[in-house]
Amino acid sequence: MSTNVPVEATVDHRAPLFKRLPVISHFNKSVGLQRGMLVIGLVLTGTFLLTAIFAPLIAPFGFAQLSDADGSFPTQEPPGGKHLWGTTVGGYDVFSRVIWGSQTAVLVIVVAVVLSIFAGVILGLVSGYIGGWLDRILVVVADAIYAFPSLLVAIVMAIVISGGQSSLFGGVLAAAISITVVFIPQYFRVIRAETIRLKAEPFVESAKVVGASSIRIMSRHIYRNATRTLPLIFTLNASEAILTLAGLGFLGFGIEPSSAAEWGFDLNKALADTTSGIWWTGVFPGLAIVWTVLGLTLVGESINDLNDPRLRGRKKAASGKGGPDSSAGDQAAIEAEVRSA
Amino acid sequence: MTVNIDRRGTGTGPVLDIDHLEVTFATDAGDVYAVKDVSLEVNPGEVLAIVGESGSGKTVTAKTILGLLPETATSRGAVLINGNNVISVSATELRQIRGRDVAMVFQEPSTALNPVFTVGWQIAEGIRAHAGGPGRRRVSAKDAKARAIDALRKVGIPDPETRVNYYPHQFSGGQKQRVVIAAALALNPGLIVADEPTTALDVTVQAEILELLRDLRDTYGTSIVLITHNMGVVADLADRVVVMYQGDVVEEASVKTLFAEPRQDYTKKLLAAVPHLGRNSASEGMTERAHQGGKVLVEAKGLTIEYPGRLGSPAFKAVDGVSFTVSEGEVFGLVGESGSGKTTIGRAIAGLNRTTGGSLSVLGYEMLNLKERTFKPLRKDIGFVFQDPAASFNPQLTIGDCVAEPLIIHTNPSPAQARKRVGELLESVQLPASYADRFPHELSGGQRQRASLARALILNPKLLIADEPTSALDVSVQAKVLELFKEIQQEFGFAALFISHDLAVVDMLSHWVGVLYHGKLVEQGIGHHVMGAPRHDYTKRLIASLPVPDPAEQAKRREDHRALLGI
Fold this sequence. Notes:
B: alpha/beta; Rossmann fold; 2 domains; disordered N terminus
């Protein structure tokens, strides 16, 4: 029956490339509350990214600027007038520092997540596919790192890497690498688990039977099938990276105010202000963190729900007489789904 | 409760009446009409079989009867069970109906039972769920257990007083299915919906379960809705048959009429495609083993394959002292039930499993101490076709890339050469060369299995191992793939090891057949000799328990089978 399907019956069903990109494809298949969550997340994240990109245009002053043509900035000035969100005890402009802080945050997230994805994916593939003692050692190391509070590991790494130095580059890199170390086990475990699952799949066995080498099997057959969940972990980790960076800055292991703006550091400096009723130095960097983390988490959680057919909401089936447009393939898929439910 | 609830048994009307049922699913690709317009009824004490290929909507219909459809489904029409419309009743009423008026037997008994509770508890759960509530007496644990023991006895579990406290893993597959049936029977429902109740079971066990279902009908007058794709099962058990195709009822007739004179073209095609043991045998007319002049490609002498046991338990012998040969150009059929070791042998020949004893020589290479590096050059002479065509293709690569993979690994051709060769191969398995640019999910199951055959043949191997290549396919597709396999084998002349649990399929293709039982090769011989005049007791039982798609013949075979088992 279906073996003799005429050629035109199964033309290429694949949507154009841009519609298959992670977030866009998720948006297209979402409905109702899930779409609402995704849209809010995307708006929050979008503003965060745009702010980072256009920081030099948006911010009225530099992040380390203490004076302009009119002379030194006043200290601890309430919001309003020239200094939109007031100034700090040191005389920095809060608004400018919050805007510039987004740039630091993006930089750290990108470096940290990219580094950990590379390392985690390669280690996960090798460990999962080859197995044996190498696998055991890597798993033990990953578990050991997991057992530490992530902030503690990050602090240790910050000290080891920068040795107390805090230039923009050094500071960002130190923060990024310390976050990387914390995140590698996550990527490692996810990719390793997928690899072990895929290793037993018939298509990998069929590659083995035709004589493909281990490297070819890992790179051509397993890698692309194992990385489907990465966009999801990426977004969830990005929000965690912001929190770790802010935590590091808050504890004083971040970046000096003269090198770059950093929300966690500003929060730390605002601690003393709260008792004297100066709220603006703490609230705005804090809100910036909440804004960014909330945005990234909403995007991540929505993608998570949308990736899972059982969690994904769908429009109710339209009423009306049965139409001829459902192919046997769709029905077979339904039957499989119904049976497994 | 309303009055109409207790109408069961008083009237003589149908137990189940489905009237213009439509089921629509909301999916990412839009609405799918799984069931378009189905009307049928089941009378008391009747076995109604719903047959059809995958995607025909038979399972969806069955699930609707118990109100088990997922949230994404919308159903319209009426499904009346003893006067209650399952589609419109409230959730509470639906729960009352389930178990008391209608119960379900699932396909896979190992997953239908909860592994952490005893079977007695699981059977009693249904009894307890329906007791209690306003105006009714609660059932004590002791009573519930006594009724569970009763139910187990009904389904022929030996020593039910002890076995009631067993956990599911302590039963064999067939016994588990009996337990599932016992749970369905616990409240003595008038109707049992059995969704492919024997598909996951071996043929010999299948025969027992079918026997049990027939007994239940005869003794207790239970009506059964039997969902199946196996025409042999239909011929064995059903009174009336409904044939479904793409969500519609194509034909409805009594079982004798349907098999004797099908009216619709689709039904005719479906029946013609069912492999029938003893017809169309590849070894027809042969009196001695063919192809013995050529080189021996595979030779097993006392081959033993063990799987290491867990700490403290002995190793498991999957294959135990098996000896056979496969010569050039010969098709060797290996049959056996699940766990007989047939797949293990196939995988060992392809170097996917290690052998642990005896000798297995493949193309002159001794597999006992397999070194991947020295065996690799020989891999180009071995093709392998996997059971599940959907899973054996990398979903990220196009069919062309997948088929070309062996070529690229062994001969390193230019892209144009590879493309040309892939095109040739696809055409020889009767797929258009343009399919090379498609992705595996864009092909149907049969098409994928053809592509899989093309991949196995692209290097012109001397030996092809086919591990249940058609058991994941629908009958009509299976028939075409088998025919193609036969043609290609004659054209290319490769030797083949054809592994299957389906005797009729093996008989259609193989010149020489070996029967495996618990890791031992109990019988081997020319195909039609083994099928026609089996010598070993196990082979006799295996062949006798295979239901044939012909009600009259099957009734006769059933008697023979009973005689063989001494019932």
